[in-house]
Amino acid sequence: MSRNPPKARFTEDIPPSTPYSTRPAFQVTMSRDGHSDTFGAVGGDSPVPSSPSTPVPQWIPFAAHGPGMSGPVSAAWPPLVYTSPAPGPLVTSQPIYRPVYPIQPFPPPSFRNMSDAATQTEAQAEAAIDLRTKMANDFASNIFDGIIPHTNAGGRQRTRFRWPLGVEIAPEDRLLVVFRAIKKAGFPTLGSFFAQVFDDKTIYNKHRTVYHTIASFLQAKERSIAHHPVAIVDLIFRHRKSQEFVDGTAVDPNFSLPRYSLPPSARLDLSINEPSTNSTRNALINWSLHRMIERIEKETRELLKPQHGFLHRPKDPAVTWEGLLAWSLIQSQETIAVNAPAIFTLLTTIAVNRNAGHKLEAMAAVVNEESGELGNTDDGLPFLNEAVSSASDATTAQGVEEDNMDGEEEEEEEESGSGHEDDGELGETPTLFVKVGHRDPWQASLKALAVTVIILVLLYFRNRFALMLPILIGLFAFACNAHREFISVLCRLGLSISYSAILAQLHVLGADSAEQLRLIGAFSEITGPAFLVLFDNVNKMQRAWRATLGHKSEVKSGTASTIIGLVGVRPGAFLSEPLNKAISEGRRGALTVQKLKDDILWDHIRGVGVGHVLRVWLKYIPALACHREAVEKIFSSEFQKHRLQLRKSDIRSTRLTNIDESTTVGAASVLQNIIIGQLSIIPTSLHRWLVMICGDQLSIDRIRKIKDYARKFLTPFTRHEWALPVIQLWHLKWNWQKAIFRLHWHDGLGKDVFGLRHDCELLERGKFNPDKCDFYPAHHILEDRFDAIILDALRLICQQETGVTYGAEVNLTDGLSNYFESSGQLHKCSFDKLRQFASIVYERYMCIAAAEDALGHTTPRDTQLYGPAWTPAENTESDDEDEADSMPALAPLGSSSKPPPAKKAKKSRHKVSGQPKRNFSSGDQAMVNLCHFTRVTFWYLELCAAVAEGDIGRVFEVVKLLRFSFWGAGSTNYGNELLELACNFLYEWSDDLRFTVFENYLVNPTGRIGHWLELDLLQEHFNFWIKVLFNSKSHDFDGKHLSEAVGLNIPGISKIREQFPGLFGLKKNGQKHRKTLALDDINRLGIHFRDQHILEWESGRDQPYLVINEFAKGLQS
C-alpha cells in the first residue's frame, strides 16, 4: 500500500527555480512522517559565494528509504539530510556559485537501464520543482526589504502574489504557508504572534506597513463585515474547539465575581475567588462579564452626575412643587437609555420576552413606513443580532412550557391600566410611543417604565441623594394616607423616603409655598393686587378612643383659604374710589323690580333651552350624532355670552387656622391672618385698592357685616374698604338644587303619587335623603328624570309626525333610534327640522307659559302649539271610588300588585312651599307640576353646563332668573345676596371692574376644555384633602403639621394624588367623574310616562298638590 511522500513544513523547503543562489543554505531534517525536527541557517548570515569544488551530498534514491516510498516526487526529491558547507574563499575575480540543492552524481549501474516511463516521470518532477521554485521566489519577493540593513525600505507591495493557474489550492494550504512563515519569523504559536501584534505597550513606528495594517484592522476599516475584529472574536467564541464537553454537555463557565455579587452563603469565603480553569469560550464569557461590569460602573457614574437630574444634594436648591410635578418618568427613561444603554438593555432584556420584542420591531417598521422614514440603513454587525436571536431561540427551544410561564403569550391589559387621559404636567411621551399609541407590544411601555423605576431604585441604594423618585412615591403614599408601616416597607425597598423624611420634605415644600405667597403679596402700589382670596370653614370629627371628663369626642373647626392669581385685570379696575363714590351716592336706590325683569334675556333662555333638548337627544340616539357640531355651535357661537379664555389657573393654598369664620369677629380675624400674616401686605398699601374676597353665602354675609360694623373706624384698612365680597356659584347652585327638591318632593303625600319622589322610587333610589340632599346623587336624579321627559316628548312628536307607533315591548331609546336610523321614517330629518322639534318641546314643557296653559284657564286651548289632548277611556266603575284613583300611581312593572306602604317620613326642617288645594277646573295639574319641574331643572342644568364650559355670561343669564326664584322658593338668604350682586353689577361696579370679576369668576386647575370649576367647589375639594390628611388625634388646625406641612401644600398634594398613577399608565383617580348613560333608568321612566300618558294633556286630571310657580311668587315678594 503506497503512502504519500513526506511534506516540508515551510515554503523555504522548496528549492528555488535557479540552480545557484547567494542566499544562506538551510538544513532541514525530514522524518518519514513528513514532519521537520529542526531547521535553521547552516552557512552563516552573510551571502558569500561558495567554491564550485565544494563537496555535495550523495544522491540516494528516495525508494531506498523504505517500502512504499515511490512516486515521481520521491524520485526527484529524496528525504535526505543535505547540507551545504560554508562558502570558501574566492580564487578568481569571477563569481563562483554553490548549488542550493544536491547535484546528482553519475548513477550506479543498477539504474542505467531505466525505462522511458521513468525518464518521463523524472521530467514531470523537475517541472514541479521548477514551479515550486518560481512560487517561492514570487512569494518571498521583497519580503525582507527594510529588515536587513542596506536594503530598500520596501513599503506597500504593489504586486500581489497570485497562485498559479491549474493548481488547486485549498484554504488549508494557504493557512499552512502562513503558519510556516509565522513560525519561521520567530513566533512558535499563534498566541505569541497575536500577543505581539496587539501588544499596546509596543510602539510600531519603524515600518508603516506594520502600523497601518494593525490600525486598519482594529479601526474596522476592512471592507467586509466578516473581517471585523468583533466578528473574528465571535468566530473564536463560537468555534467548536473553544468549548469543552463532558458527556455531550457543554461545561459551564467559572466566573470570577466581585465579592458583593456572591451568594450570601459564600460572600465572606476567601477561597471563592481563587482562579479556576475555563475553556476558551467560557473564558471569553467571564472576560465579557468583567468588561460589562466596567461599563456598568462607568454608566452608573455618568447617571449620578448632577446635570441628569437624579440627584438632590444638600447644597442643591430646595425641591419645589413646580419641579416635582414637572418631573417625568418617561423623560428619565429617555435619559437613562441614552446615557446608560448597557444598564438599560441589561434590565429590559430580563423584562421583555421574545414575542414582545418581535412585535415592537414590527410596529416600529410599520410606523417608519407610514411616516416615510427608511430607518437606519447603515452597515451594522448582523452577526451580533443573529447571535442574540440564536441564543434566545436556543434558550426557548429547550422548553416551550417555561417560555409560556414567563408570559410569552399575549395578555390583555387590565381595565384599570388602559385609560390614558391628558396630563401635561408630568412630561411628554417619546415620539415612538406617540405614534404607536398606548397599546403597544410593551403594554403601553409599562415594562420599560418598570425597568426605569428599578434603575432609579438601584441608584438610590448607591447614592442616598438620588432622591427624586423616592420623594415622589413617598409624597404619593402620604397623599393616599398610607399606613406608616407600609411607608417603612417602601423605604426599606428603596422605593420611598422614610415617613419622617416625608414630613421634613413637606415642611420644605411648605416653606417654598409660603415664600411664594409673600411674593404675591408684594404687589406694586401702582398696579394694585393681582389675586383674590377664597376661604371656607373646615370641620373634622375627632373621636376619643377612651372618653373622659377632660378628653371626649369633639368637632374640630377651622378655616382653610386659597389665593388665586387674577388674569385679564384691566388698569384701574380695582381702584376703590369709584366704588366708594357709587355707594356714598346711593345709586342702588334706583333698582326696581321692573329693572330686574327687563334685565332678563328670554330669547337667550329659550335658545339655550332648545340646545339642551338637542343635547339630550344626541346623547341617547346614535343616529343623530351627525348633528353634534351644529348643536355645539348653539352654545359656542350663537348664544355664547362671555366665554373665558382657556388657561391653567395659578392656585396656592395658605396655612390653616383654628379661627371660626362663621362669626363676624372670626371672619375679620381670618382676613387679618391672610392679608397681614401670610401675604405680608402692608396695611397702608391697600388704602386705594380692592381685593376680591370670595366664599359661600355665609362667608360673604359676614364680610358685609364687617364693613357695616367698621364703617366709622379711622383708616380704610380697618374699615375694610379694600374688601370686595363676591358670592360664589357652587353653593348657590347646590341651594337651587335643594330648592327644586323642596318644591317637588312631598313626603306627606306618599311615594305612590306621581311626582319626583314617585320617580325616585321607580328608579329604586328610595334611600335618597331630600333633607340632606347630597349633591351628586341629587344631580343624577334631576338629570335622569329630565332626560326621560325630553326623550318621551320626542316620542310623541315622532308619532304625530309619522303616524307610526311602536309597541310597549320596544324601549323608549330603541324606538326613537328606529325613527332616525337609515331605514326609519325620519332618517332624512335635517338639523333645521330637528331644531324645530326641540322648539316644540321647549314651548310645551320647559317654559312658564306651558304651565299656565296646562292649568286650563285658556279657552280654547292651542293644540297646534301644545299638542292634542288625551282622552281616557270611559270609566265604568262606581262613582264613589276614591278620587285619588284617577291620579298616576306607582306599581311594579309587569305586576298589578300594590307597592308596600310608605314609611313615615321624618319632618323636614326646610321650609316647604305652599300647596294649594286641588283645582277641579278643566286643567291638568299633573302636567302643571311636570312643566314646572322641567323648567327649573333646565335652569339648574344650564348652570352646570355653562360653568363647565367656562361661559360665565350664560351663568349669569340664569342667575338673573334666580333673583326672583330664590325668593319664591323660600331661599331668602341667597335671594338677598343675588339682589346685592344685582346692585353691584347694575349700579356700583365700573365696567372695568365688572369685566375683571367676570374674567376671574371661575377657575381651571388643569387647563383643559370643559374643566372649569366654581371657586368654592375648588375650596371644597381642598377641604376634602385636609380631612383625609387629618390623620392624628393630636393634630390641630393651628398645629405645625396641619398648618404648614399640609395646609400650604394642598394643591401639590391633590395634584400628585391625581396624576401620579398616570406615570405608570393607570387611570387618574381624581376629580373627574365617570360619564355613564343610565339607559335602563331612562327606559323604565319612559315606560311609566307612556303608560300613564304623563306628557299628554288630559282635561281634569288632578293631584293632591300643585307645585307653585316660584318665579311668579318671587316677583310678588
From TrEMBL:
A Pfam family recorded for this sequence: DUF6589
Bias type Acidic residues, positions: 400-426, 876-885
Region spans: Disordered: 1-54, 391-426, 860-920
Compositionally biased tracts (Basic residues): 901-912
Keywords: Membrane, Transmembrane, Transmembrane helix
Domain of life of the source: Eukaryota
InterPro entries in UniProt: DUF6589 (IPR046496)
The DUF6589 domain, residue ranges: 590-1073
Low complexity: compositionally biased ranges: 888-897
Membrane-crossing segments per the record: 444-461, 467-483
Protein's name according to its UniProt entry: DUF6589 domain-containing protein
Source species: Favolaschia claudopus
Lineage, broadest ranks: Eukaryota, Fungi, Dikarya, Basidiomycota, Agaricomycotina
